[in-house]
Amino acid sequence: MPSSGLLLPPTARQEALRGSLSDENLGPGYLVGGMPFEAATAIWERLWTSRYPLAADAFDDGVWRQTRAAAMTRQHVELHPKHVWGLIGVDVDHPDAVLRMVSTVDNHPPPNVIIENPVNGHAHAAWAITTPINLTNYGSRRSVRYGLSIEEALRRAVGGDPHYPARLIKNPFHPRWMTHFIHDNTSTLDRLGGILTPAGHMPGRGWHNQRRRTPVGHSRNETLFHGVRHFAYREMRHHWGDPEGYRAAIAREVAIRNADFDTPLGVTELGHISTSITDWTIRYSRMWNDGPAAYDQAFRAIQAARGRKGSGRNGGLAGNSRPGGLIRGADRAVTSQAFREAVIWEARS
């Protein structure tokens, strides 16, 4: 059988190094269980759908998008595309990780692939979904929530790391890892839930709300970014003409909010978040670039529009049976229009 175009067959040196347990002398483990190289490659190419994936060796050196062929030379690769969720990943940081993952009787469905660190026994596992979940605004929110519940149940079943963001996974064909391909079948969410529910691993109904209150992993970054982003828009009025003072204020707010997490983010991640917010605001924000006069004019126009709309029954929407949603929608529309008019007025004056 001809070899895959994605990967080259193992070299003689790699074959000689197979099974080593030291960092200095590691060999590829993708034939664990006796599966031929071509068969293992075919399975991974079918399950792994990222066309231009994120990949990295040492995370401190950065993570960036690469071609599939280039990514497969890295130690870690993207688990699934950003907008299509086809593989559910779990990270188990225990020396008996593989044993936990293959002990499936009356506990959890077997994963498709297990990628093990032969030095400490820690491993990543992935389960393939029959119908990948659409993560865009056109997808089903119910499917996304159900998928997150399945992911949490699988994590609980094998004692996985709750802080694992499921963004990157160990490269199953990198010489540093030992990989166990278990099977190539996909599963529906209902089938996974049908096994995990009787085993008692599915989270309760209030789990999603608790997850938002105590974010972990990748959601900590998102929670911190969006919270400080809105703070930054208001804070700029105190720092006109003083970008360094503005940067210091945003960095301080990022550190304060990060301290509220049960497991705070590291200093490097905090620096990336604060720099991203301040750089964008200073370079591209009309509020910053137009100066305090335009900012004050826009603020007065917004407040005046809210005052005009706020008079009357149901905020000026008499007879509305569901005033809350319409009021919020009208408020956003009026606010946006008022801001646009104020900016145009300031530019022309």
Q: What does this protein look like?
A:
The chain has 3 domains: 12-204, no CATH class; 214-284, Endonuclease III, domain 1; 292-349. A hairpin with a 7-residue loop joins β2 (54-56) and β3 (64-65). It is built from 12 helices and 9 strands. With 349 residues, it is α+β, with helices and mostly antiparallel strands. The model is unreliable at 1-11, 13-31 and 313-327 (pLDDT under 50). Strands 1-9-6-7-5 form a 5-stranded mixed β-sheet, with helices on both faces. It has a 4-stranded antiparallel β-sheet with strand order 3-2-4-8, with no helix packed on it.
Overall morphology: elongated
The stretches of 5 or more residues where confidence is low (pLDDT under 50) are 1-11, 13-31, 313-327
Number of strands: 9
Main sheet attributes: strand count, strand direction, barrel closure: 5 strands, mixed
Secondary structural class? alpha+beta
Can I get a quick summary?
The chain has 349 residues and is of the alpha+beta class.
List keywords for this structure.
349 residues, single chain, 3 domains, 4-stranded antiparallel β-sheet, 5-stranded mixed β-sheet, Endonuclease III, domain 1, disordered N terminus, alpha+beta, 12 helices
List the helices and strands and how they pair.
Elements: H1 12-17, E1 29-32, H2 37-47, E2 54-56, E3 64-65, H3 68-71, E4 76-78, E5 84-92, H4 97-102, E6 113-116, E7 123-134, H5 141-158, E8 168-170, E9 178-181, H6 189-196, H7 207-213, H8 218-235, H9 243-258, H10 267-284, H11 286-310, H12 323-348
Parallel strand pairs: 1-9
Antiparallel strand pairs: 2-3, 2-4, 4-8, 5-7, 6-7, 6-9
Helix pairs in contact: 5-6, 8-9, 8-10, 9-10, 10-11, 11-12
